[in-house]
Structure formats: structure tokens, C-alpha cells
Amino acid sequence: GENVEQHPSTLSVQEGDSAVIKCTYSDSASNYFPWYKQELGKRPQLIIDIRSNVGEKKDQRIAVTLNKTAKHFSLHITETQPEDSAVYFCAASGIQGAQKLVFGQGTRLTINP
Amino acid sequence: DVKVTQSSRYLVKRTGEKVFLECVQDMDHENMFWYRQDPGLGLRLIYFSYDVKMKEKGDIPEGYSVSREKKERFSLILESASTNQTSMYLCATLSGTVIYGYTFGSGTRLTVV
Fold this sequence. Notes:
- The complex is a heterodimer.
- Chain A has strands at residues 4-7, 10-14, 19-25, 32-38, 45-51, 56-59, 62-67, 72-77, 86-92, 102-103, 107-112.
- By secondary structure, chain A is an all-beta fold.
- In chain A, the strands form two sheets. In chain A, strands 2, 4, 5, 9, 10 and 11 form a six-stranded mixed β-sheet that branches. A five-stranded antiparallel β-sheet of chain A has the order 1-3-8-7-6, with no helix packed on it.
- Chain A starts with a strand and ends with a strand.
- By secondary structure, chain B is mainly β.
- In chain B, strands 2, 4, 5, 6, 9, 10 and 11 form a seven-stranded mixed β-sheet that branches.
- In chain B, strand 5 and strand 6 form a beta hairpin.
- Chain B is globular, with a radius of gyration of 13 Å.
- Chains A and B meet through strand 4, strand 5 and strand 10 of A and strand 4 and strand 5 of B.
């Protein structure tokens, strides 16, 4: 089955700097890659996703890139702000059946003022 | 907005008890999922269901069962609770026709003593 590895487990950056979180997946059939943000005490919320027919997607200060050949994808946050502090999860799934997601281990991002 | 409601935010149960965790959604989504969230391990899939009375094992089904008698309700059952089942449990739903990622419930933090 699919296995998703996420790095780093913790990340601390200065406010205004960029943050990058990386994930690798094992199943070449996976073709949907969402990213979730979980603030302290709250439920995970989808922030951006990418499908395998696209190499990059942007939404304001966040972007996701996908390298299908290398089977890795990354989340990029630019001009970080204190409200970006949270745990971020990557995930992967195939668009088949119930589209079950396999999640990475999570990255705790801290933005230092 | 899809609402995914988990019946309890916090639960404390004794070892050996039978425990029911309830999840109800109001948007007629076909797919429902139960994950457990543990620090450093991310979200791991316990069971999922893609239709009424249908269920599939996830990656860590041992010690759990599920029930889906109605489309809107997906129950997770701990047959005989053990201390290693102390965790945060998250329910999620997904439309079968539009793939926009999961919608999560707010979670149930279960402590088994």
C-alpha cells in the first residue's frame, strides 16, 4: 500500500521568511495530493491540493509542487505570518474507490516574531 | 458548508469497556472515514465506508469495528478498550462525486484508564 514520508517534523522560521515542507510517496498510482493545516485544538483543514496532471499550484502565499518522477511533493509558504503557526499534514491517494488518504507524520511549523 | 459532528469532544473510559464513537454528517456524502491521530505518527486510517452497510479495513483496524446503518452516521466501536487506544479520533467525509478533500469532524479525545 501507499506510504507517505514527511519532513521535517518540526520547523521554526522567522516571520517574513519562507517555509518548505517536503513529502515523498511510494505508490506511483497515487494522483491526488492534498495539504491540511491543523491549528492547536482544531480540526485539520484543507489548504491546497494538487493532482498528478499538474506540476505546480499557487494560492496567494502558499504553493505546492509535484514531481511525479521522483514521487515527491512540497508545500511552500512565503512571507510567513504568526497565524501560519500550526501542524501541517501532507497526504496522497488514488482516485479510485473511496479515495482513502494516506497521511504523512506531520510538521509542526512555528513562526517566530 | 458540510457539517461533520462527533458526539463527544472528550471521553474517559476504563480498560475493558465497550466504547462507541459517533460521527454524523449532514451533506449526503457517500464516503466516511475514521482516523486516529497520535503525535509523530500523523493520521492513521482505522476503517472507512463508501456506502451504507459497506465497510473496509484501513491500516490499523485491530481492536476496532464500525457500523454504518444510515448514510449520515458512521460509528467506531472499541470492543474492549485498552490503554494503547488512548488517542485523538477524527471522523472525515468525502463526496463521491466531487473530490475536494476530506471534511473532518472536530475530534474525540479518548483516554482509557
